[in-house]
Design brief:
With 772 residues, the protein is α+β, with helices and mostly antiparallel strands. It has 25 helices and 16 strands. A four-stranded antiparallel β-sheet has the order 9-6-1-13, with no helix packed on it.
C-alpha cells in the first residue's frame, strides 16, 4: 500500500508540474503582449525566448535536486550577467526611453531623459533576454510555491502601468487573469468543486475570445470609462451647473434654467466677470488645458519659479495697480455665496488681491479652485477696479519708471518671463478654422493698433454676420465652430467667445476661452446685492494685456458697450457707485432675492435635489470606505491563508490532523455549535443534521476517528485522514440556512491569529491533551 501511495504521489506531482508549466505560459504570454506594446519588439521573438526559458527552468527544476547543481548553475548565470553588464545597462536605458516616449504621447508632455549613451538593437535584445530570464524565474517560483500575494502584486503593476502609459489591452488582462484564476484554483484545491473550476475556466476562455475580437478598442473604451467615472465623481463632490466646461456640443445648455447659482454682495456697484472654467486650446469641439509639454521644454519649472517670486496670474492685475501710482483706486469687499454652482471653482473677478487661504489654489496659470473634498460654498475677496470695460484701460509701462523699487524690478522680470510663455503658447489658431477665420475677418480692412481696435473690429464683423440665439444647434460628428462660421451663423455666447478667441489670436493677441458668471452693475440692488441664476452664466474671451495680465473682453452681441458709449466713457470720469447701507424697499428686495424662483414648489424641489446630492455623495463616500475595508480584510485573509497552507504542507500527517480538528472547531463555532471530542457528540450530530449540513452519523464517525487519534494516541490511516479532510470540506462549502453574518465570518475570520496560537499550543503538547 505504501508503494501504491508513492506511485500515486508521483503521478500527482507530474500533473501538478504540467499544470504549473501551463499557468506559467499563460501568464508570461500576457506579459509579453504588454512588453511588446512598450518596446515594439517582435512578439514571435519574445514568445520563442520565453518558451525556451520556461522549458529550461522546468527541466532544471525536474532533473537537478541537489544543492550543488543549483549553486553551480547560479554561479554560471552570474558570470554571464557580469560579462554582459554594459549591454544590459544600455538596454535598460532604452527601455526607460520607450516608457518616457509613451508617457509623453499619452499625456502630451515633453519630459526628456538626457542620454549621451546610444542604445542599439543588440543592446535591447540582450537586455530583453536578461529581463525575461528574471521575470520568468520570478513568475515560475511564485506559481510553483503558490505565492499568491507576490504574483498578484506583479499582476496589478502590469495592469496599472499599461493603463498609465496608454497601452492597456484586454488580451493582456485576460491572459494574466486566467493564470491568476488557475493559480487560485490550484491553491484552494480542497475547497473548490470541479463544477466551479469548469465554470471559471469557461468564463475566462470566452472573455479572452471576446477581448481578442474587440482589442482594437481597448484604450478608447478605457478612456471613455475613465472620463465618465471622473465626471461622476466630480459631480458628486462639487455639484453640477449648466456651464458646459468648454464643451461646444453642450453650448445650448449654458442658460438652460433659471436656478439660483450664486449670491454676490459688494460695497461698490460695478460689473464683475466671475471667472470659473478656463480653456486654452480647442480639441475635438472642447476647450481644454494646454498640453503638459507646453509647460516643459524651454518653459520647464517656470510656474514654480513664478510662484517663488510671488507672481500669480489670477492676481496679476492687482499687482500691477500696486506699482502704477497714476491711478487711485479704492479697495472693495466682494462676498460670494455658492448656492448651486460648481463648488470646485472659486468664482473670482480679475482684480482680486493676494489670497492667503489654505483651501484654495491656483491651477497652473489659469484659475482658482478649491482644495477641500466637496468644494467651497462661501468666500470673499478684496479687489481693486474701476467700472470701465477692459479695452479702455489706461495702461502705464512700468519698465520706464525712473527709480523702480526692488519689488517692481522683480515684478517686471517675472512678467517678462511669463509674457514670453504667453506669446509662445496662446497665439495658435486652430488649423481647421484658419481659412474660415481669415475669410470672415479680412473682408473689411482696418488698422490694427492694439487690443481696442482689434476688439472693435471683431465685434463689428460678428454682429454683422452672426445672429445671437440662446439655443445653439448641435451638429453631430461635425466641427461646431466651422458649422457656426459657415452654415448656421447663429449661436450663443459659448460660440461667439470661441470664435473671438481664434480671432484675437489671428491678429497676434494672446487669448483664452473662459466660462463663469456675469454680474452687471444694473442688476445689483441698492445694498450691493444680486442673485445670479443660470441665465447669468456666461462665456467670454480673456486677452493678455502686456504688463497687466489676463483681462475679460466680451464679443457677444448685447454684452458689450457700442462704440459711441465707449467714446463717452473715455471723455467722462467714471466714478464707482457705492452700495447703500440702508435697507431697500421690501418689495424690491424681495423681487431681487427671489429672482428666478418665485414658486415655493420650485424652491422645495431644489432643496430636495440638493439633499439627494448630499445623500448620494455621502453614500458614495461610505461605499469607498467599505471597499477599502473589504480590500484590507481580503488581503489579511489571503496572507493568513497563505501562512496556513504553507504550514499545512510542511506538517506531518499527525500535525495536519490536529490542524483539521481546530478548523472543524472554528467552523462549527461560527455556525453556533460547540465541538469537543467526546462531549455532546450525539447532540451535535443531530443538530448538524437538523441544519442540513451533514448526513446522519457523519459527525459521530469523525469524532470516533479523533478519539482514536487523541486518546488512543494512534496515527490515522490514509483513508481515515481523508474522511476528516472531506468533512472539513463539507462544512466549509455548506451555504444553506447560513446567515450573511456567518458567511462573512467564515470567509474573513476563519483563519486568524487565534487559530495559529491554538495550533502552536497543540503541537507543543503533542496532541495528548485537549482544551476543555
Amino acid at each position: 500500500m505504501q508503494l501504491l501511495t508513492k506511485n500515486a504521489k508521483k503521478t500527482v506531482n507530474q500533473k501538478v508540474n504540467i499544470y504549473h508549466f501551463i499557468l506559467n505560459l499563460i501568464w508570461i504570454a500576457g506579459f509579453l503582449f504588454f512588453y511588446q506594446s512598450i518596446t515594439g519588439l517582435n512578439i514571435s521573438y519574445l514568445g520563442i525566448i520565453s518558451l525556451a526559458i520556461l522549458s529550461l527552468y522546468t527541466l532544471i527544476d525536474y532533473m537537478m535536486h541537489s544543492k550543488k547543481s543549483k549553486i553551480m548553475i547560479s554561479v554560471i548565470a552570474l558570470i554571464v550577467i557580469i560579462l554582459f553588464i554594459p549591454f544590459i545597462y544600455r538596454g535598460l536605458l532604452g527601455l526607460v526611453q520607450c516608457i518616457i516616449h509613451l508617457y509623453n504621447i499619452k499625456y502630451e508632455d515633453a519630459f526628456n531623459l538626457t542620454m549621451t549613451i546610444q542604445t542599439s538593437n543588440l543592446d535591447m535584445m540582450i537586455f530583453t533576454l536578461f529581463f525575461l530570464l528574471l521575470i520568468c524565474y520570478y513568475v515560475y517560483r511564485c506559481i510553483k510555491n503558490r505565492s499568491l500575494i507576490f504574483i498578484h502584486i506583479l499582476f496589478f503593476i502590469v495592469i496599472f502601468a499599461s493603463m498609465w502609459l496608454g497601452v492597456f489591452s484586454y488580451i493582456v488582462m485576460g491572459l494574466m487573469t486566467l493564470s491568476q484564476v488557475g493559480l487560485w484554483i490550484m491553491n484552494y484545491n480542497d475547497f473548490i468543486s470541479w463544477r466551479i473550476r469548469i465554470w471559471l475556466m469557461s468564463f475566462m476562455a470566452v472573455f479572452i475570445a471576446l477581448t481578442s475580437i474587440f482589442s482594437y478598442r481597448d484604450e478608447q473604451t478605457i478612456g471613455i470609462i475613465k472620463n465618465m467615472t471622473a465626471s461622476k465623481i466630480d459631480t458628486l463632490r462639487y455639484g453640477e451647473d449648466t456651464l458646459p466646461k468648454g464643451d461646444l456640443t453642450q453650448a445650448t445648455n449654458i442658460h438652460l434654467d433659471d436656478e439660483i447659482r450664486l449670491k454676490v454682495s459688494t460695497l461698490q456697484i460695478k460689473d464683475f466677470y466671475l471667472k470659473g472654467y478656463v480653456g486654452s486650446r480647442l480639441v475635438d469641439n472642447k476647450w481644454t488645458d494646454l498640453k503638459r509639454a507646453d509647460y516643459n521644454g524651454n518653459h520647464q519649472g517656470m510656474l514654480n519659479w513664478l510662484e517663488s517670486k510671488g507672481f500669480y496670474t489670477t492676481q496679476q492685475f492687482n499687482q500691477y495697480l500696486s506699482y502704477d501710482h497714476s491711478q487711485d483706486i479704492k479697495s472693495n469687499e466682494l462676498t460670494i455665496e455658492n448656492v448651486a454652482a460648481n463648488r470646485k471653482y472659486y468664482y473670482a473677478p480679475y482684480s482680486i488681491d493676494y489670497l492667503s487661504r489654505k483651501n484654495v489654489t491656483q491651477v497652473k496659470d489659469q484659475n482658482l479652485v478649491s482644495t477641500t473634498l466637496f468644494g467651497s460654498d462661501n468666500y470673499d475677496y478684496q479687489e481693486y477696479s474701476q467700472n470701465l470695460p477692459c479695452e479702455l484701460l489706461n495702461t502705464t509701462d512700468l519698465t520706464k519708471q525712473a527709480h523702480p523699487s526692488k519689488k517692481l524690478v522683480k515684478y517686471n522680470k517675472s512678467e517678462n518671463i511669463y509674457r514670453q510663455f504667453v506669446y509662445d503658447k496662446y497665439l495658435d489658431v486652430d488649423h481647421s478654422l484658419l481659412s474660415s477665420i481669415q475669410s470672415l475677418f479680412d473682408q473689411q480692412q482696418f488698422k490694427n493698433t492694439g487690443i481696442y481696435s482689434v476688439s472693435q473690429h471683431i465685434r463689428s464683423i460678428l454682429s454683422q454676420n452672426m445672429t445671437y440665439s440662446e439655443k445653439s444647434i448641435h451638429h453631430k460628428n461635425k466641427n461646431e465652430l466651422l458649422a457656426f462660421l459657415n452654415e448656421t451663423r447663429q449661436g450663443n455666447d459659448v460660440l461667439f467667445a470661441s470664435v473671438g478667441v481664434e480671432a484675437f489670436r489671428y491678429y497676434g493677441i494672446p487669448a483664452r476661452y473662459v466660462e463663469g458668471y456675469l454680474a452687471k452693475s444694473s442688476s445689483f440692488n441698492k445694498q450691493g446685492k444680486v442673485t445670479l441664476t443660470s441665465k447669468n452664466a456666461h462665456a467670454w474671451v480673456e486677452v493678455y494685456f502686456d504688463g497687466i495680465g489676463w483681462m475679460p473682453i466680451d464679443v457677444t452681441p448685447g454684452y458689450y458697450y457700442d462704440t459711441y458709449a465707449l467714446m463717452s466713457m473715455l471723455d467722462q470720469s467714471q466714478g464707482v457707485k457705492e452700495a447703500s447701507a440702508k435697507k431697500d424697499d421690501s418689495k424690491k428686495a424681495k423681487a431681487v432675492d427671489n429672482q428666478g424662483s418665485s414658486s415655493v414648489i420650485k424652491q422645495a424641489k431644489k432643496v430636495i435635489q440638493k439633499l439627494e446630492n448630499i445623500f448620494i455623495g455621502f453614500a458614495f463616500f461610505l461605499g469607498i470606505i467599505l471597499i477599502i475595508f473589504v480590500i484590507i480584510l481580503e488581503m489579511r485573509r489571503t496572507l493568513y491563508q497563505m501562512k496556513l497552507y504553507r504550514l499545512y504542507r510542511q506538517s506531518s500527517q499527525d500535525q495536519q490532523t490536529r490542524i483539521l480538528y481546530l478548523i472543524i472547531k472554528q467552523i462549527l463555532a461560527i455556525y453556533g455549535v460547540e465541538c469537543y471530542v467526546g462531549w455532546k457528540d450525539q447532540e451535535n450530530d443531530q443538530l448538524l443534521l437538523h441544519k442540513q449540513m451533514i448526513h446522519e452519523g457523519e459527525y459521530l464517525r469523525v469524532i470516533h476517528l479523533l478519539k482514536k487519534f487523541f486518546y488512543g494516541e494512534k496515527s490515522l490511516e490514509v483513508y481515515e485522514f481523508n474522511i476528516i479532510s472531506r468533512f472539513v470540506e463539507t462544512l466549509y462549502q455548506h451555504k444553506k440556512n447560513v446567515s450573511l453574518y456567518q458567511k462573512c465570518k467564515l470567509h474573513f475570520v476563519l483563519v486568524s491569529k487565534k487559530l495559529f496560537k491554538q495550533i502552536d499550543n497543540m503541537n507543543n503538547k503533542g496532541g495528548k491533551q485537549l482544551e476543555k
